[in-house]
Amino acid sequence: MDIIDQAQQREELERELAIRQHSCHESAMPVVGACHYCSATVPAGYRFCDHDCLTDWQKEQDARKRAGWLA
Ligand SMILES: [Zn+2]
């Protein structure tokens, strides 16, 4: 992966996070300075350290919803 790919991935992540922060469900998630999926330290304002953690977290949430673990 070169620096341009990295920049594009970061841009996609920020856009995705911005969209999710505007959705009423996910806006309840606190920004705690650590990734919600793997607990790694993240920059201020971030909920996930990278796109992989975001998508994995989304898959986990979707799986939980399907299993009826979340109201
Ligand atoms: Zn993470």
Strand content: under 5%
Number of domain modules: 1
Number of strands: 0
Q: Write the H/E string, N to C.
A: HH
Shape: globular
How many helices does DSSP assign?
2
Helix content estimate: 40-55%
- Between the first and last Cα atoms, what is the distance in angstroms? 40 Å
Instruction: Please tell me the overall pLDDT.
Output: 83
Poorly predicted residue ranges: none
**Class based on secondary structure composition and strand pairing:** mainly alpha
Small molecules bound: zinc ion
CA-based gyration radius: 13 Å
| Main beta sheet | none
Summarize this structure as a short list of keywords or feature phrases:
single chain; 71 residues; mainly alpha; 0% strand; globular; binds zinc ion
Task: List strands and helices in order, with pairings.
Layout (H helix, E strand, L loop, with lengths): L2 H20 L28 H17 L4
Bound molecules: zinc ion.
The site of zinc ion has 7 residues, from loops.
